[in-house]
């Protein structure tokens, strides 16, 4: 591990946040002598960020913890264009009303994880629509265009992958990297930003911004990326069997969020505790060293700590209580998903689809055939199994980790 002198880079390094640095020595020196203003950008394509974004939000949190100033850039302007990075097809156009609503939803996570105030290290949130939508097209071409060559733009992974797969890349998307580079310059000139943070897939875009600002204004800027997070089995971080693991409770119940972390692979527990919690490193080392079934205690700590940060302490307490009632007590917890059984009754297939454990009747049939469908802990193997409820409740399960409650309508 590289020996850094600044508190900032030491903290980021110790907790596993650093993948690439444009000028480690220069940034280390800068962080020792002044408050570094750094930003990360988030396009407003949904009403919430997801777990895949959480590492970069924690990076901003670490920056503030080390005595520096984080800037959360909302991509109100770039959302209208679409980042081609990692995409096989063009992003669907989103209206201004939806973008504005999405930004309001995303803001909730930052309010929990960052401190927003007028102090020198207080976080700020800005929207790149404020300057990008004011740009004149001809002015942009004349002033910024000469600093980009199509030859080099074609070498970037976001472009190459799309072309190699013979998937369309629109001219609109092709401009995304220019606009993101312009963002870095704008923030450097008007907000004193010296450092751009991002995931490893943003390295090329970050370099563009550094070079553009140096050529146009002679300002030295820096870039830092986090590792692309995958689980120990190689899966992309932030996905569950039901799709994205959203940070906002409006899109994902507290229990499901908590349970995602509780189901962490044994091999990932220590790494995730470092990146996604504020626990001291010596405590993390103790938890990481647990063996056998004892590692489950560390997973509960991970689930509680992340849920406290992202959803609040009450959400963590409720989710853990639900887990205890469901697993240890063999009952049902208050935070589980619920489906109301119609008065005329329903089949097990209706229930699995209705509660969201299967996306279709076909998927429900496969779940039943594989022995994964259970009522009150007993496997159901008959697709036509009827469920009638006039009172009380039934626990429905999909495999060992997904549970819900059936109640009379």
UniProtKB/TrEMBL annotation:
Which GO-annotated molecular functions does the record name? ATP binding; RNA binding; tyrosine-tRNA ligase activity
**Which Gene3D superfamilies does UniProt cross-reference here?**
HUPs, RNA-binding S4 domain, Tyrosyl-Transfer RNA Synthetase
Q: Where is the signal peptide, in residue numbers?
A: none
**Which Enzyme Commission number(s) are on file for it?**
6.1.1.1
Q: In which broad location class does this protein mainly occur, judging by the first location in its UniProt entry?
A: cytoplasm
Source taxonomy lineage?
Bacteria, Pseudomonadati, Pseudomonadota, Alphaproteobacteria, Sphingomonadales
Q: What is this protein called?
A: Tyrosine--tRNA ligase
Instruction: Name the protein family.
Output: Belongs to the class-I aminoacyl-tRNA synthetase family. TyrS type 1 subfamily.
The role this protein plays is: Catalyzes the attachment of tyrosine to tRNA(Tyr) in a two-step reaction: tyrosine is first activated by ATP to form Tyr-AMP and then transferred to the acceptor end of tRNA(Tyr).
Renumbered to this chain, motif 'KMSKS' region spans 236-240
């Amino acid at each position: 591990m590289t020996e850094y002198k600044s508190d900032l880079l030491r903290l980021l390094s110790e907790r596993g946040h650093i993948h690439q640095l444009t000028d480690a020595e220069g940034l280390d020196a800068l962080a020792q002598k002044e408050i570094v203003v750094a930003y990360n950008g988030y396009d407003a394509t949904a009403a919430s960020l997801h777990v895949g974004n959480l590492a970069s939000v924690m990076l901003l949190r670490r920056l503030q913890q080390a005595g520096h100033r984080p800037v959360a850039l909302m991509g109100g302007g770039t959302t209208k264009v679409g980042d081609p990075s990692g995409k096989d097809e063009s992003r669907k156009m989103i209206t201004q009303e939806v973008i504005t609503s999405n930004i309001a939803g995303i803001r909730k996570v930052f309010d929990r994880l960052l401190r927003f105030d007028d102090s020198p290290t207080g976080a700020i949130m800005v929207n790149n629509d404020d300057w990008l939508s004011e740009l004149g097209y001809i002015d942009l071409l004349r002033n910024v265009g000469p600093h980009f060559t199509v030859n080099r733009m074609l070498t970037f992974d976001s472009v190459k992958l799309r072309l190699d797969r013979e998937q369309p890349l629109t001219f609109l998307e092709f401009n995304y990297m220019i606009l993101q580079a312009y963002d870095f310059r704008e923030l450097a000139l008007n907000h004193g930003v010296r450092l751009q943070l991002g995931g490893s897939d943003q390295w090329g875009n970050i370099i563009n911004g550094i070079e553009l600002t140096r050529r146009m204004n002679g300002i030295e800027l820096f870039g830092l990326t986090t590792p692309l997070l995958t689980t120990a089995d190689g899966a992309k971080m932030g996905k569950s069997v039901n799709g994205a693991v959203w940070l906002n409770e409006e899109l994902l119940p507290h229990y499901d969020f908590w349970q995602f972390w509780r189901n962490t692979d044994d091999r990932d527990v220590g790494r995730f505790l470092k990146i996604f919690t504020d626990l001291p490193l010596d405590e993390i080392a103790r938890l990481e060293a647990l063996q056998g079934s004892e590692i489950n205690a560390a997973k509960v700590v991970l689930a509680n700590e992340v849920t406290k940060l992202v959803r609040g302490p009450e959400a963590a307490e409720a989710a853990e209580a639900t887990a205890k009632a469901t697993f240890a007590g063999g009952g049902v917890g208050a935070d589980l998903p619920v489906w109301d059984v119609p008065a005329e009754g329903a089949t097990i297939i209706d229930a699995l689809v209705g509660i969201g454990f299967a996306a279709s009747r076909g998927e429900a049939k496969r779940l039943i055939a594989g022995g994964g469908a259970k009522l009150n802990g007993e496997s159901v193997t008959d697709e036509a199994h009827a469920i009638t409820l006039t009172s009380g409740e039934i626990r429905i399960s999909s495999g060992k980790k997904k549970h819900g409650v059936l109640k009379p309508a």
